[in-house]
């Protein structure tokens, strides 16, 4: 009986190994069906480096943002803040949760503004919005606080 179990175990292991390889292959094959344009877009660099004194071929995101005018607090929240503040990543106060925001509001708006600009704990400076002006950061904080009372 024990030899029968060993044979069954080997066959099961072989089948599971084959299934694992097949799953790996299917995820690789799915990329094969993409057009060259899709692949180029997927692997395109996320930015360019410009050297001081040399002309850059691509305008910076800051210039583009400046040309569009100031963005609303809601727009900044939706684009840059929601990833952490919607679920409370690393202790971030959750949007809409008055209990999370109350201690921060108690410290005053200037404290929240300083923390948002300089970063605090796991939050990076400007909360990942490197193109945000101080006024846009202020608007995002006001939007989050106003909707978390």
TrEMBL record:
<dbReference type="InterPro" id="IPR002323">
    <property type="entry name" value="Cyt_CIE"/>
</dbReference>
<dbReference type="GO" id="GO:0005506">
    <property type="term" value="F:iron ion binding"/>
</dbReference>
<keyword id="KW-0732">Signal</keyword>
<keyword id="KW-0408">Iron</keyword>
<protein>
    <submittedName>
        <fullName>Cytochrome c5</fullName>
    </submittedName>
</protein>
<feature type="signal peptide">
    <location>
        <begin position="1"/>
        <end position="31"/>
    </location>
</feature>
<keyword id="KW-0249">Electron transport</keyword>
<dbReference type="GO" id="GO:0009055">
    <property type="term" value="F:electron transfer activity"/>
</dbReference>
<dbReference type="InterPro" id="IPR036909">
    <property type="entry name" value="Cyt_c-like_dom_sf"/>
</dbReference>
<dbReference type="GO" id="GO:0020037">
    <property type="term" value="F:heme binding"/>
</dbReference>
<keyword id="KW-0813">Transport</keyword>
<keyword id="KW-0479">Metal-binding</keyword>
<dbReference type="InterPro" id="IPR009056">
    <property type="entry name" value="Cyt_c-like_dom"/>
</dbReference>
<feature type="domain" description="Cytochrome c">
    <location>
        <begin position="68"/>
        <end position="148"/>
    </location>
</feature>
<dbReference type="Pfam" id="PF13442">
    <property type="entry name" value="Cytochrome_CBB3"/>
</dbReference>
<keyword id="KW-0349">Heme</keyword>
């Amino acid at each position: 009986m024990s030899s029968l179990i060993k044979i069954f175990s080997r066959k099961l292991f072989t089948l599971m190994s084959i299934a694992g390889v097949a799953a790996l292959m299917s995820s690789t094959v799915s990329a094969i069906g993409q057009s060259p344009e899709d692949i180029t877009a997927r692997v395109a660099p996320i930015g360019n480096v410009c050297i001081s004194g040399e002309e850059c071929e691509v305008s910076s995101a800051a210039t583009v943002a400046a040309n569009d005018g100031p963005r609303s607090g809601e727009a900044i929240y939706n684009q840059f803040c929601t990833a952490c503040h919607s679920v409370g990543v690393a202790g971030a106060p959750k949007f809409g949760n008055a209990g999370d925001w109350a201690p921060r509001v108690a410290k005053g708006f200037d404290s929240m503004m300083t923390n948002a600009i300089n970063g605090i704990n796991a939050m990076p400076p400007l909360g990942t919005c490197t193109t945000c002006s101080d006024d846009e950061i202020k608007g995002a904080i006001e939007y989050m606080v106003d909707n978390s009372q």
